[in-house]
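User
New here, help please:
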Amino acid sequence: MASKIYNQEVIFQSGLTTKVVTVTLERCLTPVWIPLLITERKARTALLHLYLSTGVEGSTPITLTVPLFVGLSSDVTDYTCETLFQDGRDEQESVNNIKKNSNVGTFSVDVSHHPPSTYTVKDLYSGVFDNEPSMPFSQVSQTRSVALEDTTFFIQRGLRKLCLSATKTSSGLIHAPLESEFNKAGRKFLPRICLVFLKDTETGIISLFSTMDSELTIPFQLRPVCDYELLVLRGYEPKKCLFIINAVAFCSFKSYMTQNELYLLYGKACTHSLSPGPGPPYDFYPVTHLYRSKPILHFLNIFNNTGGIMYKYIKNFGGDPASTLNRKLHGLFFSASVDPLTGQPPAVSYYGDQRIHIPVGFMINQSTNLYFADFYCHYVNHHVTLVITLKGSEADAFCLPRLLALNPAYNEFLYRRPHEQHAMVNTKVTVEVFYTESIDIVEFLRSKLAYLSSVKQSGNAALKTVIGLPKRKDCKICNIKEPS
C-alpha cells in the first residue's frame, strides 16, 4: 500500500549557492496550500510563505531566492523552514517557537458571539501593534499582485486536509496596496494586515482569512459546542503569498450552545427530574423565599461600603463550558432548592456562613421573564440554572435569542402562579436562579420582607465563586455530546 505522505523539497537559493530543506506532506488529489514558516536567524525575522502545491509526489521544488526581503541575509545557511500545523505539534508550540527564534511580539485577541453561531475576532490591531515599525513601499522588492480569484482550496496539515477560504474582500487572502495610506511626510506605506487561522480541533479543519480591519467576522456559522483555536499573525505582505510577521496571538475557545442545543439540554433536564411511578410527574414543594449564601464579611462590606446594595457581577465559568452566559452576563445567584422532608434549605452551604432570604414574588412576577439556561452536575446532584430578567432590560435582550423562555406560571422546575405568595420548586434537581439586577438588601431587611440566617459552611467559598466549577464531562445524563 502506497504511503499517504511524501517529501517536498524547499530550496533556498542565492546565486549559485543553495540550501535544501525537506518537509513532509500528505498526498492529495486537489491542489493544496502549504503554509511555510521561515526564520532568518541573523536578523531574527519570521516570515510566512503560502505555496500552492499540486498535492502529489514529484512536485516541483519550492524555490525561494534570498534575500527574501530587503535587509535580510543573502546567506542561505541563515534560513530555516518548517510547515505550520503539523501533526504532533499544537499551535501553542508553534507560537512559542516563533517567539523563541525571532523578534516577533505578542498580543491578545477576543472573540465575541452573535446568535445563533456567528463569531467575530476582535482587537486585531490593539496593544503592541501601534508601536510596530511601518514599512515604506521603497523597501518593497516586488509589487504585490492583486487578489486571488474567489475560490476554496485545501492546505496541508501533516496527515490532514485543511480548508482555506480566499476572497478578494477584507476577509480575503491577498490584497493590493492601499493607495490612500501615507505618513505625515507624504511617503506611502505598506498596509498592515492580519492572517487569521481558525482550527476546529475535532475535525482538524483549518480556515484562513486575512483582514486590514480591527476585527474579523468569520463568514460562516461555527459548529456549536466545539473547541476552536485561533492563530493570528500580524504584519505586512510585501510580495504575493509572502508575509512578514511582526506579532503573533493565540487563543482557544469553545463555541456556545445555540437554542437548538439548549433545547436538547432542557429535554435531558426534564427527563432527569421526572418522578418515577404512577403519581404526579414531578415532585414539587412550596417555597416563599429564594436564598443566597455568602461569608459574613461579604455582607459586612455591603452594609458598610456599598450603601446596602448587593451589586451584580459577571457570571463565572461554572456549569456547562458552552453556556452562552459564561463571562457575558451579570447577575446574582440565588437558590430555590429545599430538603423535601423538612421544606428547609440545606443545613450546609459551600458558598458562605450567612444566608439572605428574598421573597420569591420579588423575582417571579409580571415584570420579569424566566429562562432556562443550563443543566449540569458535579458528580453528585444535578443542577438546573434559570435566569430571571426585567422585561425590556439589556439582560432580557441578551437572553431572548440565546436561552429558552419558560412560562413563569407553570414549568418543570420553578413556577409561581399570579397572586400567590409562594412558588413551587422541583425537588429532584437543585434549582439555581441567576437574577440579572442588583438588589438593595438593606431596604428589604428594614421592611422585614427579607431576613438573614446562619448556616454551616463547607469548602472554599472563594474558589467556587470566582472561578466556578465546570460540569462533569463524562456524565451521560447532562451532556448532549458523547465524551471524546
Notes: The radius of gyration is 29 Å. Confidence is low (pLDDT under 50) at residues 128-187. The CA atoms of residues 116 and 258 lie 5 Å apart. Residues 259-272 form the longest helix (14 residues).
